Amino acid sequence: ETGVTQSPTHLIKTRGQQVTLRCSSQSGHNTVSWYQQALGQGPQFIFQYYREEENGRGNFPPRFSGLQFPNYSSELNVNALELDDSALYLCASSLYGEGYGYTFGSGTRLTVV
Amino acid sequence: EDQVTQSPEALRLQEGESSSLNCSYTVSGLRGLFWYRQDPGKGPEFLFTLYSAGEEKEKERLKATLTKKESFLHITAPKPEDSATYLCAVRGMDSSYKLIFGSGTRLLVRP
Protein backbone atom coordinates (compact mmCIF):
# COMPACT_ATOMS: atom_id res chain seq x y z
CA GLU A 1 0.00 0.00 0.00
CA THR A 2 1.54 3.30 -1.08
CA GLY A 3 1.22 6.40 1.06
CA VAL A 4 0.68 10.02 0.07
CA THR A 5 3.46 11.44 -2.07
CA GLN A 6 4.09 15.13 -2.72
CA SER A 7 6.33 16.95 -5.16
CA PRO A 8 8.53 18.86 -5.17
CA THR A 9 9.96 18.55 -1.66
CA HIS A 10 11.43 22.04 -1.67
CA LEU A 11 10.78 25.10 -3.78
CA ILE A 12 11.99 28.69 -3.84
CA LYS A 13 9.90 31.32 -5.63
CA THR A 14 9.95 35.08 -6.02
CA ARG A 15 7.16 37.29 -4.72
CA GLY A 16 4.47 37.74 -7.36
CA GLN A 17 5.17 34.44 -9.11
CA GLN A 18 2.82 31.47 -9.38
CA VAL A 19 3.44 27.95 -8.05
CA THR A 20 1.91 24.50 -8.52
CA LEU A 21 2.32 21.76 -5.95
CA ARG A 22 1.39 18.14 -6.63
CA CYS A 23 0.02 15.28 -4.57
CA SER A 24 -0.69 11.61 -5.21
CA SER A 25 -3.27 10.20 -2.83
CA GLN A 26 -2.92 6.94 -0.94
CA SER A 27 -4.24 4.00 -2.90
CA GLY A 28 -8.01 3.61 -2.42
CA HIS A 29 -8.55 7.12 -1.03
CA ASN A 30 -11.04 9.38 -2.84
CA THR A 31 -10.73 12.64 -0.90
CA VAL A 32 -7.80 15.02 -0.77
CA SER A 33 -7.23 18.01 1.50
CA TRP A 34 -4.52 20.65 1.54
CA TYR A 35 -3.07 22.32 4.61
CA GLN A 36 -0.61 25.15 5.18
CA GLN A 37 1.76 24.88 8.14
CA ALA A 38 3.78 27.91 9.18
CA LEU A 39 6.90 27.35 11.26
CA GLY A 40 6.03 26.43 14.85
CA GLN A 41 2.30 26.28 14.15
CA GLY A 42 -0.24 23.57 13.54
CA PRO A 43 -1.51 22.91 9.99
CA GLN A 44 -4.32 25.16 8.73
CA PHE A 45 -6.98 23.83 6.39
CA ILE A 46 -6.96 25.33 2.88
CA PHE A 47 -9.56 23.22 1.04
CA GLN A 48 -10.78 19.71 0.32
CA TYR A 49 -11.69 17.97 -2.94
CA TYR A 50 -14.06 15.07 -3.46
CA ARG A 51 -15.20 13.75 -6.83
CA GLU A 52 -13.07 16.40 -8.51
CA GLU A 53 -14.97 19.26 -6.87
CA GLU A 54 -14.09 21.54 -3.98
CA ASN A 55 -16.40 20.67 -1.09
CA GLY A 56 -14.92 22.75 1.71
CA ARG A 57 -12.64 25.75 2.06
CA GLY A 58 -10.80 27.46 4.91
CA ASN A 59 -9.97 31.15 5.32
CA PHE A 60 -7.68 31.45 2.32
CA PRO A 61 -8.03 33.95 -0.55
CA PRO A 62 -9.08 32.92 -4.08
CA ARG A 63 -5.49 33.03 -5.30
CA PHE A 64 -5.23 29.61 -3.62
CA SER A 65 -6.91 27.15 -5.95
CA GLY A 66 -6.82 23.44 -6.59
CA LEU A 67 -7.70 20.53 -8.78
CA GLN A 68 -8.44 16.86 -8.23
CA PHE A 69 -8.02 14.46 -11.13
CA PRO A 70 -9.96 11.25 -11.93
CA ASN A 71 -7.12 9.18 -10.45
CA TYR A 72 -7.57 11.18 -7.21
CA SER A 73 -4.22 12.97 -7.54
CA SER A 74 -4.35 16.69 -6.84
CA GLU A 75 -2.71 20.05 -7.43
CA LEU A 76 -2.51 23.17 -5.30
CA ASN A 77 -1.98 26.40 -7.22
CA VAL A 78 -1.02 29.68 -5.61
CA ASN A 79 -0.98 32.88 -7.67
CA ALA A 80 0.67 36.22 -6.89
CA LEU A 81 2.89 34.75 -4.20
CA GLU A 82 3.45 36.77 -1.05
CA LEU A 83 6.24 36.47 1.50
CA ASP A 84 3.72 35.14 4.07
CA ASP A 85 2.99 32.20 1.78
CA SER A 86 6.31 30.69 2.87
CA ALA A 87 5.33 27.51 4.69
CA LEU A 88 5.16 23.72 4.59
CA TYR A 89 2.24 22.66 2.38
CA LEU A 90 0.73 19.35 3.32
CA CYS A 91 -1.56 17.09 1.35
CA ALA A 92 -3.79 14.61 3.16
CA SER A 93 -5.94 11.87 1.64
CA SER A 94 -8.81 9.89 3.10
CA LEU A 95 -11.98 8.04 2.28
CA TYR A 96 -15.06 10.24 2.24
CA GLY A 97 -17.35 9.74 5.20
CA GLU A 98 -17.37 9.19 8.92
CA GLY A 99 -14.81 7.20 10.79
CA TYR A 100 -11.96 7.59 8.36
CA GLY A 101 -8.59 9.04 9.28
CA TYR A 102 -6.34 11.22 7.20
CA THR A 103 -2.97 10.19 5.82
CA PHE A 104 -0.53 13.04 5.29
CA GLY A 105 2.30 13.38 2.85
CA SER A 106 5.73 14.71 3.81
CA GLY A 107 4.91 18.11 2.41
CA THR A 108 6.43 20.70 0.12
CA ARG A 109 8.54 23.41 1.74
CA LEU A 110 7.82 26.66 -0.14
CA THR A 111 10.04 29.67 0.39
CA VAL A 112 9.00 33.00 -1.15
CA VAL A 113 11.76 35.61 -1.45
CA GLU B 1 -15.84 28.64 16.55
CA ASP B 2 -14.01 25.33 16.87
CA GLN B 3 -10.72 25.66 18.72
CA VAL B 4 -7.88 23.47 19.98
CA THR B 5 -5.29 24.46 22.60
CA GLN B 6 -2.32 22.29 23.46
CA SER B 7 -0.09 22.47 26.51
CA PRO B 8 2.67 22.65 27.32
CA GLU B 9 4.23 24.21 24.21
CA ALA B 10 7.47 22.35 24.92
CA LEU B 11 8.42 19.54 27.26
CA ARG B 12 11.81 18.13 28.16
CA LEU B 13 11.93 14.70 29.77
CA GLN B 14 14.66 12.38 30.89
CA GLU B 15 14.54 8.94 29.33
CA GLY B 16 12.11 6.85 31.38
CA GLU B 17 10.36 9.87 32.92
CA SER B 18 6.63 9.48 32.23
CA SER B 19 4.42 12.51 31.55
CA SER B 20 1.23 13.70 29.86
CA LEU B 21 0.41 16.16 27.07
CA ASN B 22 -2.87 18.06 27.16
CA CYS B 23 -5.27 18.99 24.37
CA SER B 24 -8.25 21.19 25.29
CA TYR B 25 -10.91 21.64 22.66
CA THR B 26 -14.09 23.55 21.91
CA VAL B 27 -16.15 22.09 19.13
CA SER B 28 -19.79 22.09 18.06
CA GLY B 29 -20.32 18.35 18.16
CA LEU B 30 -17.22 16.19 18.12
CA ARG B 31 -16.83 13.90 15.13
CA GLY B 32 -13.36 12.79 16.11
CA LEU B 33 -10.24 13.85 17.98
CA PHE B 34 -6.96 12.95 16.32
CA TRP B 35 -3.41 12.67 17.62
CA TYR B 36 -0.50 12.94 15.22
CA ARG B 37 3.27 12.82 15.62
CA GLN B 38 5.38 15.12 13.45
CA ASP B 39 9.14 14.93 12.99
CA PRO B 40 11.02 18.04 11.77
CA GLY B 41 10.42 18.76 8.07
CA LYS B 42 7.99 15.83 7.74
CA GLY B 43 4.25 15.45 7.51
CA PRO B 44 2.12 14.42 10.49
CA GLU B 45 2.04 10.69 11.22
CA PHE B 46 -1.30 9.32 12.46
CA LEU B 47 -1.37 7.92 16.00
CA PHE B 48 -4.97 7.71 17.30
CA THR B 49 -8.58 8.71 16.70
CA LEU B 50 -10.98 9.05 19.63
CA TYR B 51 -14.71 9.58 19.18
CA SER B 52 -16.45 9.70 22.55
CA ALA B 53 -15.75 10.64 26.16
CA GLY B 54 -14.26 7.78 28.13
CA GLU B 55 -12.59 6.22 25.13
CA GLU B 56 -8.93 5.18 25.45
CA LYS B 57 -6.41 3.88 22.92
CA GLU B 58 -2.88 2.60 23.33
CA LYS B 59 0.13 2.09 21.11
CA GLU B 60 3.47 1.04 22.54
CA ARG B 61 4.44 3.71 25.12
CA LEU B 62 1.56 6.03 24.19
CA LYS B 63 -1.96 6.11 25.56
CA ALA B 64 -4.64 8.61 24.53
CA THR B 65 -7.71 9.40 26.60
CA LEU B 66 -10.74 11.62 25.95
CA THR B 67 -13.19 13.62 28.06
CA LYS B 68 -15.88 16.04 26.92
CA LYS B 69 -13.46 18.97 27.02
CA GLU B 70 -9.95 17.59 26.68
CA SER B 71 -7.71 14.77 25.65
CA PHE B 72 -4.48 13.56 27.17
CA LEU B 73 -1.59 11.80 25.52
CA HIS B 74 0.24 9.84 28.21
CA ILE B 75 3.82 8.81 27.50
CA THR B 76 5.12 6.00 29.68
CA ALA B 77 8.88 5.50 30.09
CA PRO B 78 9.74 7.55 26.98
CA LYS B 79 12.81 6.93 24.86
CA PRO B 80 14.85 9.47 22.86
CA GLU B 81 13.17 8.26 19.65
CA ASP B 82 9.85 9.56 21.04
CA SER B 83 11.19 13.10 20.58
CA ALA B 84 8.89 14.90 18.13
CA THR B 85 6.07 17.41 17.97
CA TYR B 86 2.71 15.93 18.94
CA LEU B 87 -0.31 17.50 17.28
CA CYS B 88 -3.93 17.28 18.37
CA ALA B 89 -6.79 17.98 15.95
CA VAL B 90 -10.58 17.86 16.05
CA ARG B 91 -13.24 17.32 13.44
CA GLY B 92 -16.53 18.98 14.32
CA MET B 93 -20.14 18.88 13.18
CA ASP B 94 -20.01 22.36 11.61
CA SER B 95 -16.81 21.66 9.74
CA SER B 96 -16.96 17.96 9.18
CA TYR B 97 -14.63 18.04 6.23
CA LYS B 98 -11.64 19.65 7.92
CA LEU B 99 -9.34 19.13 10.88
CA ILE B 100 -8.72 21.98 13.34
CA PHE B 101 -5.20 21.62 14.72
CA GLY B 102 -3.56 22.90 17.86
CA SER B 103 -0.05 24.36 17.72
CA GLY B 104 1.47 21.17 19.08
CA THR B 105 3.72 20.14 21.95
CA ARG B 106 7.42 19.80 21.18
CA LEU B 107 8.74 16.84 23.16
CA LEU B 108 12.44 16.28 23.76
CA VAL B 109 13.52 13.09 25.54
CA ARG B 110 17.13 13.12 26.72
CA PRO B 111 19.11 9.91 27.16
Tell me about this structure.
The complex is a heterodimer of chains A (113) and B (111). Chain A is an all-beta fold and 113 residues long. Chain A is built from no helices and 11 strands. Chain A has strands at 5-7, 10-13, 19-24, 31-37, 44-50, 53-57, 64-68, 74-78, 87-94, 103-104, 108-112. In chain A, a hairpin with a 2-residue loop joins strand 5 (44-50) and strand 6. The relative contact order of chain A is 0.33. The model of chain A has no long low-confidence stretch (mean pLDDT 92). In chain B, strands 2, 4, 5, 9, 10 and 11 form a 6-stranded mixed β-sheet that branches. A 5-stranded antiparallel β-sheet of chain B has the order 1-3-8-7-6, with no helix packed on it. The N and C termini of chain B lie far apart (41 Å). Chain B has one domain (3-110): Immunoglobulin-like (Sandwich). Chain B has 111 residues and is mostly beta strands. Chain B has strands at 3-7, 10-14, 19-26, 30-38, 45-50, 56-59, 62-66, 70-75, 84-92, 100-101, 105-110. The model of chain B has no long low-confidence stretch (mean pLDDT 94). Chain B is globular. The chains are: A mainly beta (113), B mainly beta (111).
